[in-house]
């Protein structure tokens, strides 16, 4: 790979940042991280992030936005691919990656809503989605595609990290009687690349973040 300088513009709790960070780590790409406060981003952030979101990858100072675009780019410029080789399998992986994005959206709603009805709705929606993963998608292997880490694992690892944290405060039963989902979660949460993809104080920061939401979920934390 041609020598380039990589800088990941990040917010410490962002699951989209974590997937990009995981690919950087998994593919041994030397990089720096620039954390910003999303509540008051620095002025330069608006110049590099058209959607005003993290992550942004600065490649020799030139910005690339959207987490999956960043992940695919990093995969392409390095040896080997984190996607399956077969085009159909690769497309199926990408489809379930999209599905993972909807789980992230629901999860965000779940812990931010202050409306009890919406909270129940999001709980039911997530339960159904985890059920679909268990029944229609997973095949009982440690990682999504067998015994090796793939791109899709980098997408679901932050989902599982959120839900492992939420479960400490309030068990919504998402992993009960779902052995394949639980195996996938446990494999990912103990995988080195995944554990290294968040800052050391992640748990404390998430705790503070969840409490300050003033949401239905925040109330269940006490
Ligand atoms: N589709 C985007 C989503 C990124 C995203 O939602 N990032 C959140 C933080 S987790 C963000 O920057 N939010 C800032 C805002 O919406 O103002 C991606 O995959 O990169």
Query: Which overall shape is indicated by the principal axes computed on the Cα atoms?
Result: globular
Biggest beta-sheet profile: 4 strands, mixed
Uncertain segments? none
Distinct bound molecules: glutathione
Q: In the CATH hierarchy, what is the architecture of the largest domain at level 2?
A: Up-down Bundle
Q: Which CATH class of the largest domain applies here?
A: Mainly Alpha
Helix and strand succession? EHEHEEHHHHHHHH
Strand order of the main beta sheet, please? 2-1-3-4
Say what oligomer this is: single chain
The CATH topology of the largest domain comes to Glutathione S-transferase Yfyf (Class Pi), Chain A, domain 2
Number of helices: 10
Give structural notes.
The chain is α+β, with helices and mostly antiparallel strands and 222 residues long. It has two domains: 6-76, Glutaredoxin (3-Layer(aba) Sandwich); 87-220, Up-down Bundle (Glutathione S-transferase Yfyf (Class Pi), Chain A, domain 2). Helix content is 56%, strand content 8%. The chain has ten helices and four strands; from the N terminus they run βαβαββαααααααα. It has helices at residues 15-26, 43-48, 67-76, 87-112, 116-137, 151-169, 179-189, 192-195, 202-211, 216-220, and strands spanning 6-10, 32-35, 56-59, 62-65. A four-stranded mixed β-sheet has the order 2-1-3-4. Helix 1 (15-26) links the parallel strand 1 (6-10) and strand 2. The chain is globular, with a radius of gyration of 17 Å.
């Amino acid at each position: 790979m041609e020598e380039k300088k990589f800088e990941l513009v990040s917010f410490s709790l962002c699951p989209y940042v974590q997937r990009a960070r995981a690919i950087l780590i998994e593919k041994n790409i030397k990089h720096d991280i620039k954390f910003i406060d999303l509540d008051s981003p620095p002025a330069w952030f608006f110049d590099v992030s058209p959607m005003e979101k993290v992550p942004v990858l600065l490649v020799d100072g030139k910005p690339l936005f959207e987490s999956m675009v960043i992940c695919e780019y990093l995969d392409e410029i390095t040896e080997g691919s984190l996607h399956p080789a077969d085009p159909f399998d690769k497309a199926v992986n990408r489809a379930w990656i999209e599905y993972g994005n909807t789980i992230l959206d629901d999860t965000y709603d779940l812990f931010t809503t202050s409306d009890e009805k919406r909270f129940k709705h999001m709980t039911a929606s997530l339960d159904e989605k985890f059920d679909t993963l268990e029944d229609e998608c997973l095949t009982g292997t440690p990682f999504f595609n067998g015994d090796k880490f793939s791109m899709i694992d980098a997408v679901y690892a932050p989902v599982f990290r959120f839900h492992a944290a939420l479960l400490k405060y309030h068990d919504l039963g998402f992993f009960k009687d779902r052995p394949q989902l639980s195996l996938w979660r446990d494999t990912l949460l103990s995988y080195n690349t995944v554990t290294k993809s968040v800052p050391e104080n992640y748990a404390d920061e998430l705790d503070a973040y969840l409490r300050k939401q003033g949401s239905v979920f925040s109330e269940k934390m006490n």
